Amino acid sequence: MIKFEHVGLRYGIGPEVLSDVSFTLEQGSFHFLNGPSGAGKTSLLRLMYLGIRPTRGLVSMFGQNINGLDRTELSPIRQRIGVVFQEFRLLDNLSAFDNVALPLRIQGKNEKEIRNNVNELMDWVGLQDHKNMLPNTMSGGQQQRVAIARAVIMRPRLLLADEPTGNLDDEIGHKLMNLFEQLNRMGTTIVIATHDQNIIESFGHPTLMLEEGRLRIEDRKTWLAKKMEGVF
User: Fold this and answer.
1) Read out DSSP for 69-81?
2) How confident is the model at residue 223 (pLDDT cuts 50, 70, 90)?
3) Sign of the CA dihedral with 106 first, then 112, 118, and 121 last
4) What is the mean pLDDT of the chain?
5) Under a CB-based contact definition with an 8 Å cutoff, are residues 183 and 199 in contact?
6) Which of 26, 36, 64, 168 is most buried (most C-beta within 10 Å)?
7) Element housing 203 (H / E)
8) CB 176, CB 148: distance < 8 Å
9) What mean pLDDT is predicted for residues 99-128?
């Protein structure tokens, strides 16, 4: 699904924010992305959703080397990726329903198909009774669920989420995680960037750990051992 080989990234002439990053994520896997502020988590996500290109090294997505592809060739690859941004990025002048429907309308789908798909997803995220509300009249948890529904409306093979539970209480955060778990069971590969150690411990998926621009993968057993030692 994703393969990074000795990837480095710098902005302008500054120092590398990611250094010699190498890893492989298999189809259908579920990983957390963790690390201190400034470690490069957002930059790594941007590389994964093809928002930027690496300064050096090779990036492969869905078995295809993306380094030499132009914008037109990248477009169909991006369509297989759903992204949930920390700041939601909902359009305030559109209802929750229309925010979720937007990717389908951009693709030119017919309105009957759009209604069926959007209503199904709004029910899945528990917002069927709120679909006509504008984002600025919704709670943070409701807006986040709208953003998730919009990200998965195109049935992405890969879903990337940046701090999706960041400003939510524990109950709503765990409900959102259960939605991600359900999506993963349906075959979607998922990477979630989070600082929430309780979420990491509760759900137990392996963690991509970034520190000073370098990455390692920790399984649940290693993570719990470090917590017992007082690392966290």
Assistant:
1) --HHHHHHHHTTE
2) low
3) negative
4) 88
5) no
6) 168
7) helix 197-203
8) yes
9) 91
Percent of the residues in the chain that have a pLDDT greater than 70, as a whole number:
94
Q: What is the DSSP letter of 229?
A: T
2-80+156-228 has which CATH code? 3.40.50.300
Dihedral through CA 213, CA 216, CA 221, CA 225, nearest 10? -50
Q: What is the DSSP letter of 166?
A: T
Whether the predicted pLDDT of 107 surpasses 70: yes
pLDDT at 227 over 70: no
- Nearest Cα neighbor of 122 from 141, 81, 150 is 150
Whole-angstrom distance, CA of residue 77 vs CA of residue 82:
11
Task: Please tell me the predicted confidence (pLDDT) of residue 136.
Answer: 93
- End-to-end CA distance of the chain: give it in Å, rounded: 30
For the chain, the structural domain boundaries read 2-80+156-228, 88-151
Closest C-alpha to 16, from 215, 210, 213, 209: 213
Which amino acid is located at 208 in the chain? L
Query: What phi and psi values does residue 218 have, to the nearest 5 degrees?
Result: -115, 135
Handedness of CA 43, 199, 1, 7 (dihedral sign): positive
